[in-house]
Structures are given as C-alpha cells and as structure tokens.
Amino acid sequence: MKYLLLALVIASSIYLLAANEASAQANAPAAKAPATAPAANIATPASKSSAGAPSSAATKKTSAVIAPTRYAPNPLARRAQLYYDFIWGVDSLKVKYAESGEMIRFSYRVLDSEKAKPLNDKKNEPSLIDPKAGVKLVVPSMEKIGKLRQSSTPETGKIYWMAFSNKGRLVKPGDHVNVVIGKFQANGLLVE
Fold first, then answer.
1. I need a labelling partner for 17 at 20 to 30 A (CA). Which of 1, 49, 78, 182 fits?
2. Residues 172, 120: one domain?
3. pLDDT for res 141
4. In terms of domains, do 85 and 157 share one?
C-alpha cells in the first residue's frame, strides 16, 4: 500500500512538471516577442477571418506584464543614508502624501542633536521642490498655530516633521522631490 501511494505521488508530480513545462514552452514565443508588435498582432474590431469569426491574430493583445514584488524599494541609497547620518546627524528621511494630498509631510529622526540644529532653526525657511511638476512648496503659516513645523531644539532619538502646502495637488505619490532647509538638501526623496 505504501509503495502504491508513493508511486501515485511520483506519477502525479511528473505529470504536473510535464504540464508546466509544456505550458511554459507554449508561452515562450509570446514572451520573446519584440516590444513593438507588428500591426497584425494588435486587436482590431474590423479584423475578421473568412468564416466571419475573429482571427487568432486579431484576438491576441500585446501587453507588458510586470511581475509583482513583495519587497519595498529603499527610498535612499546606503551611501546617502551614511551622508545624512555623518554630516547632518539625521536618518529615516520620509516624504508622505497627507491630508488627501493637500499636504506633503517631511519627517526625519535625529541621531546627533548638534549636527541637526540647522534643520530646526526658525531662520532657515524649508522648501520642497518637485522638478517633474515644476513647483516649489513652502511650509504654511496658520493664524493661531504659526508655521506647520517643529522648531524646538532637537533631541537625539526623536522624530521631527514639517508639512508643506500642496495646493492643487501638484506633487503626487511616486514623485521624486528635493527638500531644502538652509544648507541642508535632500535630493530624490520618494513621495509615499
């Protein structure tokens, strides 16, 4: 009985492997097709065979398939992370789309409070630049609250933030932006 079950399992796995290999070979020519397909491979409503049914060439559609990945891209290169850590005493730089797109939130964690002082200095006006959209966002000043940024003396280990006004929602998730605060400049940050 054990040998019969073992033989059944082996036979079914061989069958499945053969079926997968056959389907992979059947799909291989479509995967090797050039990016610019000839006009005959594009589906058109007027393209019919002599029998009146759509031809097989007319039913094929060309599309690029992107394999999904479970790994999130690292927004900053390791070298950039070391630079911001060593020169400015900050890490975990993040730019997030907030308040239904009306605000863009920039946050960072302080590693060295002395080096990070210029980021919280009230004299340094922060700006967020999106080269793709061609806009420069500023931190708005509310009547009773003041500027939407933290300007207290930075403490090691704490996370600080500032919010930029995104009126008209010109900056969108996926854009790469630059944050400038005095002499501090973080380039190519991904808007999440």
1. 1
2. yes
3. 87
4. yes
